[in-house]
Amino acid sequence: MKKIYLILLLIPVLFGCENLDLNPLSEGSSENWYSDETEIEMSLNDLYRTYLWNLEENYETERMTDNWSQRQAVHVFSAGSINSEWNTSSELWLNTYKGITRANSIINSLNRLQGTISDVKIEQFSAEAHFFRAIYYSRLVFYYGDVPFYTTSLDINEAFSLARTDKKIVMKQVYEDFDLAISKLPVSYASNSQLRATKGSAMAFKARAALYMHDYEIARDASKACMDLKAYELHPSYADYFLSKTRRSKETIFALPRSFELGSSWNSKNFYTRTAGGSAVAQPSWELFASYLCTDGLPIDESPLFDPRNPFKNRDPRLHATIAEFGKEHLGFIYDPNPYSTKVLNVKTGLMTANKDTRSVDTYASYNGLTLKKGVDTDWTDNNETDFDIRIMRYADVLLMYAEAKIELGEIDNSTLSAINQVRARAYGVGLAEIEKYPSVKTKIQEELRTELRTERRVEFAWENRRFDDIIRWKIADKVLTKPIYGILDVKDLKAKVIDKGLWFFPQVPVIDSDGLPDFEPMHKNGLIKLLVERNFDSRQYLFPIPSKEVLINKNLKQNPGY
To answer: Matching InterPro entries, A to Z (predicted)?
Structure first.
């Protein structure tokens, strides 16, 4: 059967006949498209489009973690009910293979363009294509395990007979692709360095891919190489870094830019308060709220500084930057979920207004009393839109990846502690050496430092789509996602059982276990909080299901266990 070539999106032929669109002779194909510099560059630009990064957008994977609470709803993943027709998996599989096919086509077309494009441009195009192919294959291996693997064009017979390749073989190619990209990509460009792949971004993504595969030596070396470039640094203010006005920070290693001017924005209404005009559909969870350490570096169940009546006091500054504090201004209004606070101050007008952020006024106010502050700015409320960049890799992650790799290798030294403490010191707005002004990490005991590192990752990257991958690769999702989601009692009971007895906000201090997970069950047994919804993660979900339609059309493509 003759080869089938696809239109510009280059949808791989092995992923569903219904997705194929045989291109007319008048349209571009892989035989006649990759013929000059402009066409190659246009094809590369497609690899930066958001459809290829759908798990990184708009808190997509946060929804599947214990950082997220959404009234009395639970995500299908956390409910343990995904199957081989799960749309998220199907889209991820299809779109990632689209990217791989495009990257392959670019790589394989460059040889015939020798002499028509400068060697410098050919090197750059090749490096970028290898960079993306490495990211896409490492993504597939992490979520699916062994996957179909190809680096050339396929005819339809080859496509429909591809079996799964051992992930070790795939990862060998991944590391080789990253190494090629690292050797050829520049450290920066003349301008807009974060808009294209760089040497540092290839190092950082190689470190992430290796960390996810527990190849700790590779992760250590790649993250250290990125650090040694001296091209990146932590943004001075943790809170300001996430605002949409913060562009081109030296902390950002790789991001997908969005802007109103380019028609690329995002509807934000679900993620800010009802008093300010939002819908408050989703909130940071109590589990996340309880995970922030106190200013003495201890968890809330160990620190004498923790006050359950004033739970924001004496806490890691990243808590204040991530979750709106009660009684403080947020989006132009005082935020207060207390049901007795039926009116709050409009800071701009100086007048009192109906407090739609308490359930005694608005039934659909936050069910756990919390609301998101991280990245939220008044520009969200102008037209329910925001255009913050999609930050996919930042320098804080490189530092913590380096520290984690060193911990797991048993190579704990001062550089390990320094990497963690740089991140923590920035959170407190002080320098690394000012150890009297922040709770620096000092232990070199592996188990203790592992707990410190994992807590640090959770609070540093809260609502940045990192928690999901972490609980999967640490193999704690079966523990994390089988705990119920709790919230505040209904208004009448909340007043009688909690507020009138002086127990607002937290009626008791939850015990925090070695994985940094709080236990709210005693409060529930005492009738002081409400069970909102159960979670029921199934351990088969440590791997995603291969889309059913792909298995049906290819007898050699075996499904993951349990689907």
So the answer is: SusD-like_N, SusD_RagB_dom, TPR-like_helical_dom_sf
